[in-house]
Design brief:
It contains ten helices and 15 strands. The chain has 329 residues and is of the alpha+beta class. The protein has one domain: Beta-lactamase (3-Layer(aba) Sandwich). It has an eight-stranded antiparallel beta sheet with strand order 2-1-15-14-13-12-11-10, with helices on both faces. It has a three-stranded antiparallel beta sheet with strand order 5-9-6. Strands 3-4 form a two-stranded antiparallel ribbon. Helix 2 runs parallel beside helix 6 and helix 2 crosses helix 7.
């Protein structure tokens, strides 16, 4: 396996996006493929911003953990203590730590275990979803799946709930919390929450096949997503993020964040606090998949090696990410 095969895989899979490899901050490979905007034939560049979907969960976790470090929240804080009478089906013993580790057992508004297609319209009136509080009706009414702490069960709604708890505990909006406590300390200048109805010129439009035609994902995702996804970023910013995170620029307790809390054998992975972990090495992973979005970035803290693939299609990132996973520094 080598970097030489990347162009061939990209051609064979009609890849649209960016592939980036660096080692100890030195770029070994950085190349863009395909179009950021198909209607106007705008090409992707290595500086194009892409949605990272659930890759944002790591950023949510770090914002929450910075509040924990400041004493605003605690890992043992119960969701109920901040929810009041909202979301009555969330069990009284569900804590911040349960939510961070996907062990809360709460029902999910976007259940990835359910039978669904990536082209399905899953979140209703997407134009109304521009704040965390606006997600409350979507989070409500989902019965508990299992007792808190019993096992791992990936839960998008749990990270929306974390965003809500962080807002209520700090009296600061979730998006500003992430900007102030994660993006700025890490030095990320090209990463932000972008509204889908006013994407800037340097952001890629997400595409998916609908009725035989490639169409944008604007009707499939919240107009301004919250704790479970929604950031746009660049390959360079993701690499900067990893270095800043492991340098302790965001939170001091890096070892606790990446300490394995759960084995996830069905994914051949482990899970920490908001981050996927390699099954048997110290490599840390952020990944995201949604309508018109796919993203994976891995970082080996021992060698300082980062592999990142960003794509503005749902299947785009995976063949190249699998190839990079097979390359050892």
């Amino acid at each position: 396996m080598s970097l030489d095969a990347i162009d061939k895989i990209a051609e064979e899979t009609n890849f649209s996006g960016v592939v980036w490899v660096d080692h100890a901050g030195e770029i070994e490979f950085a190349k863009a493929y395909g179009l950021a905007n198909r209607a106007y034939h705008v090409p992707n560049t290595v500086d194009t911003r892409f949605g990272i979907a659930s890759g944002s969960k790591g950023f949510t976790a770090l914002a929450v953990l910075s509040l924990v470090a400041d004493g605003v929240l605690d890992l043992t804080t119960t969701a109920r203590s901040l929810l009041g009478t909202d979301l009555p089906l969330v069990a009284d013993d569900v804590t911040v730590e349960h939510l961070l580790t996907h062990t809360s057992g709460i029902g999910d508004y976007l259940d990835e275990e359910a039978d669904m297609e990536i082209t399905d319209y899953l979140v209703g009136a997407v134009h109304e979803l521009s704040s965390t509080e606006a997600f409350l009706p979507l989070l409500d009414g989902h019965p508990t799946k299992f007792q808190a702490g019993e096992r791992f069960g990936y839960c998008n709604g749990g990270f929306v709930l974390l965003a809500l708890l962080a807002e209520r505990a700090s009296s600061i909006g979730y998006h500003d919390l992430v900007r102030d406590r994660v993006l700025r300390p890490a030095g990320l200048t090209r990463t932000d929450f972008l509204r889908s109805d006013e994407l800037p010129a340097d952001a890629a439009v997400g595409y998916l096949p609908i009725d035989g035609v490639d169409r944008s994902n604007i009707f499939h995702l919240p107009i301004l997503a919250t704790g479970d996804g929604g950031l746009h970023s660049t390959a360079a910013d993701i690499s900067t993020f990893w270095r800043a995170f492991f340098a302790g620029a965001i939170v001091e307790s890096v070892a606790e964040v990446v300490r394995p809390r759960c084995d996830v054998p069905e994914e051949s992975l482990r899970y920490g606090l908001g981050f996927w972990l390699h099954q048997n090495t110290d490599t840390v992973i952020l990944a995201g998949w949604d309508a018109g979005v796919s993203f994976k970035s891995t970082h080996d803290p021992h060698t300082g090696t980062t592999h990142t693939v960003l794509s503005n299609t749902s299947p785009g990132a995976w063949p190249l990410a699998r190839h990079l996973d097979g390359i050892r520094p």
